[in-house]
Amino acid sequence: MAHLMTVQLLLLLTWVAECAQSRARTELLNVCMDAKHHKEKPGPEDNLHNQCSPWKKNSCCSTNTSQEAHEDISYLYRFNWDHCGKMTPECKRHFIQDTCLYECSPNLGPWIQQVDQSWRKERILDVPLCKEDCQRWWQDCRTSFTCKSNWHKGWNWTSGHNQCPVGASCHPFDFYFPTPAALCEEIWSHSYKLSNYSRGSGRCIQMWFDPAQGNPNEEVARFYAEAMSGAGLHRAWPLMCSLPLVLLWAFSRVPFTL
């Protein structure tokens, strides 16, 4: 009898653990990634620097992170934008804005995925980037140079920052990224996906926005969170998760007999 009770209790405890994990996955709004420089929870940051300042009312990045996002070979990732000669300012501003969005936005929850990497436990995947933002990024970078199409991996890091691997040749961006979709989707291992929707549609994430008009990505995150979770999912979890706790209490009231 004692053995049976122990098995039942173990099964219930497993249920509780699975329930907690599933509930965590439904928390898709106003969240920060579990990554290298992100805050644990979003909140106000009054002094966010320059291009990161649109997120100051509610941010996943600190002031220091926002400052480093604007630096060449910063301590954030030791990444050298000028690995094939000087990147044009018009191009670099898009990569700074990309970094600000990644580090600061609390509205990427629907696209956060768990990963097994030494420097982060979560990443974003297939974030629907508004087509104008992607097209402008590609257009402004066409005259800059690079030597790779996937900037997440394959670099030579022996100098302490990224350098082109042996055998890789520097070419204009549109050699490695012939279309806007190729740039936005391939450069960070499909962190972004080119959306067919336009800015202001409420259906795509804007890399650029005017904070005086509010953060349009809040509406976008809500739309996709509801579509992914189902209208009744959040209401159902409290009832589902309370059941195993009630059963655990009931079992604890039953005396063990040998």
General description of the model:
The chain has 258 residues and is mostly helical. It has one domain. The chain is 39% helix and 8% strand. The chain is built from 8 helices and 6 strands, in the order αααβββαββααβαα. It has a two-stranded antiparallel ribbon with strand order 1-2. Helix 4 packs across helix 6. The longest helix is centred in the N-terminal third of the chain and has 24 residues, at 2-25. It is globular. The N and C termini lie close together (6 Å). Mean pLDDT is 82; it is low at 1-7, 9-25, 231-241 and 243-251.
Descriptive tags:
6 strands, two-stranded antiparallel ribbon, disordered N terminus, receptor, two-stranded parallel sheet, globular, 8 helices, signal, mainly alpha, 258 residues
The 3D shape can be described as globular
Overall pLDDT level? 82
Computed over alpha carbons, the radius of gyration is: 23 Å
- Give the class from helix and strand content and strand pairing: mainly alpha
Total tally of structural domains = 1
Q: In this structure, how is the largest beta sheet organized?
A: 2 strands, antiparallel
Helix content: 25-40%
Give, in spatial order, the strands making up the sheet with the most strands: 1-2
Question: Helix segment count?
Answer: 8
Strand elements, count? 6
Strand content: 5-15%
List the helices and strands and how they pair.
Elements: H1 2-25, H2 63-68, H3 89-104, E1 112-117, E2 120-124, E3 127-129, H4 131-141, E4 145-146, E5 171-172, H5 173-176, H6 180-186, E6 192-194, H7 217-229, H8 233-252
Helix pairs in contact: 1-8, 3-4, 4-6
